[in-house]
Amino acid sequence: LTAVDRHAPAYASRSVQEQRLWQRHLEIARFGAIAPAGVNRQALTAEDMAARAALVRWARARGFSICTDHIGNLFITLEGTEPALAPVLTGSHLDTQPRGGHFDGVFGVLAAFEVLEAFADLGIKMPRSVQAVIWTNEEGVRFAPGLMGSGVYSGALSLDQMLRVRDADGVSVAEALQSLSAIVTQSESGTQPGSPPHAYLEAHIEQGPILESQGAVVGIVTGIQGIRLYEVCVSGEEGHAGTVPASARRDALRASIHLADQLYLSLDDPSDTLRFTIGRFSVEPGGRSTIPAAVQFNIDLRHPLTTVLDDAEQRLMAAVANAANGRCSVAIQRVLARDPTLFDANIGRMIEKSAHRNKFAAMSLPSGAGHDAMMFPPLCPTGMIFIPCKGGVSHSVREAATADHMAAGTKVLADVIQQLASA
Amino acid sequence: LTAVDRHAPAYASRSVQEQRLWQRHLEIARFGAIAPAGVNRQALTAEDMAARAALVRWARARGFSICTDHIGNLFITLEGTEPALAPVLTGSHLDTQPRGGHFDGVFGVLAAFEVLEAFADLGIKMPRSVQAVIWTNEEGVRFAPGLMGSGVYSGALSLDQMLRVRDADGVSVAEALQSLSAIVTQSESGTQPGSPPHAYLEAHIEQGPILESQGAVVGIVTGIQGIRLYEVCVSGEEGHAGTVPASARRDALRASIHLADQLYLSLDDPSDTLRFTIGRFSVEPGGRSTIPAAVQFNIDLRHPLTTVLDDAEQRLMAAVANAANGRCSVAIQRVLARDPTLFDANIGRMIEKSAHRNKFAAMSLPSGAGHDAMMFPPLCPTGMIFIPCKGGVSHSVREAATADHMAAGTKVLADVIQQLASA
User: Fold this and answer.
1) SS3 labels along B10-70
2) What is the pLDDT of residues A249-299, one digit of tens each?
3) B275 vs A244: CB contact, 8 Å cut-off?
4) Would you tell me which residues 198-227 of chain A have a C-beta closer than 8 angstroms to some C-beta of chain B?
5) Tell me, what's the pLDDT at A187?
6) How far is CA A79 from CA A21, A68, A76, A150, A330, in A?
7) Could you give the ipTM of this predicted complex?
8) Is B38 at the interface with chain A, CB within 8 A?
9) pTM of this prediction?
């Protein structure tokens, strides 16, 4: 490091290198690459291990310390000057959906690593250690549930239970984790993970179209919306499409279609914040000339406010009760309710100030999707930084983000981490 | 036969035996029996051959002649006094749906055989031969298309093409037909089938609820309604249920639900004669938290009048055109159009008179389902006699008909066949 660097202004963001960050995305995208430009890199597979190994090589080359925990979360640490202080954690995941892209999760990991490198490049020393973390199995595709690594770390999930989870081939998480020893040896472990960090900050692509449509580059994530999932079963009676007159039918599909049409209407939100989705819709028996006997569909309802979710649920139940007065029976069951997560307002202001200082157009928004960050508000001040992704598309081989947006998000991440690790 | 029988009134119906007919249904139901009280007897399987063999044994015991044709239709003949005259044909099929019942098809075959026995019991001799026929593969489950035997007989289907049709295991119709030689030897063949009969009459369970709901025992079938099948494809864009606001969605399911709800309404028929059914409805990708990208559904539309079908099709196309103005693209394709079949009015009047004479409550109705009889109007005067089935249920192990209703339908069949064979 030169004397100039030693006396540089306090902000580490100026040392974030857009091209280095972009190249690392291309290198990680090779592990599990699928045509035309996607990635299938499911948790704890050979592809996942190869991507982790690349990070470990890069970390070793920079002299960062490396450690892991019992669920396979991987921590790359830039040591602080006061080892007794709780570290600042930042990161995301490297596992993807079966037909995923280059950025979901990966950006948060590589932005965290770039921040460590930016600090190291500038020779900045802070009281607190900064840890770039790779959470195990965020997507929950190979092993359910998702958010597994962050869930175990935070205490929301049981380590023992998670180690016993098996994939479709009968391989347990514990078994799949054995190959991790080829990447990280016990001797490399530095700080012991598992204790509450000083703060947690995660960078991520938005996975939605809002930043792009508003022309914003940095999203100040206010929290993660609550989610409620419902299963609806409509039961009628099978019959022959040619012989049973309409007056004698108990057509489960007709009843379901009418109910669903009512639901779309009655759950329309003028403020366009409520998310109401029917994703699965299955008809039994499904014969071309058979009046359907039964329909099962599911409802995915999300909003940042519990009160709004409560109100929407009431409208939902009223529509279902109304439909059940007809010829078919209708049953609804709530199968999941996850309260909204609220992120730290102070961290939000730090993100906003950094974006302003760097002249990045910024806006506040809730996260529509779940993230590892949602495990941390009970433990420590938590925040997220979003950057735009093309067309809002994610969990798709068409997922795309630009090098300059990633650099912008990483610069803000560097600034805020620097502040948090200095306090 | 006693002297009393020899001088009996002309109507053969009095010699129809309810218990004999019922017992034969129980015997045939053993071949391919499935729990709890159903039948799986697909065309040209061992079960189908065993059921045919039982009929052949009964026919031999009565001294009726037996013959077959190249598609395996089986003819049991009561010879007339004037062999040069075209015979009267009556029958149906013994093959069933995978989860079928005891009566669909079987009743028409056993009623035809009962009529032959009633004539023989009475020693009635008529100028024309009467043939009880078992048509091959009416259901079209194992080999497609259905109505195969009657279709080949009537010339609507090509024998060569049908012999080459293969089932899911690669077995051709020609190969499956080889086992028929164990049942019928060439030497047994009497009259040569294939030429236009003098008349065709088929007894069948209604497969719908109309006779039962009207308290009628005999249905005078006016014809078989026309059918038009359509495939509708709605294309939108996949998206994340949590991140994409309603305003940015191109939700193929939402568009399809709204379109289908409009279709049910706009195709409602105050006279309750039009049949409009959506039986298949499939959603892609079908993930619980994914905005659907595409929906495919099919429409089954039936009515006895072509003009009504034309009008309904116009309303259908208008609704689709209207839906296509939205965010999703909508395509509709007509994949089948079969004109309505009109049965012979004179045979209808004969059925009505016999029912009146026998004091059976009768009513006219079109057939909602397709039957072998629909192949015959181009060849000869054709008619069908329906009897009620419980709840209108058919193609189901719950299919049920009563012994007295079957006897009633068979008595009317006997009377009308007797008249037709005497002319």
Assistant:
1) CCHHHHCCHHHHHHHHHHHHCCCEECCCEECCCCCCHHHHHHHHHHHHHHHHHCCEEEECC
2) 999 999 999 999 999 999 999 999 999 999 999 999 998 889 999 999 999
3) yes
4) 206-210, 213, 225, 227
5) 58
6) 22, 16, 9, 21, 59
7) 0.83
8) no
9) 0.82
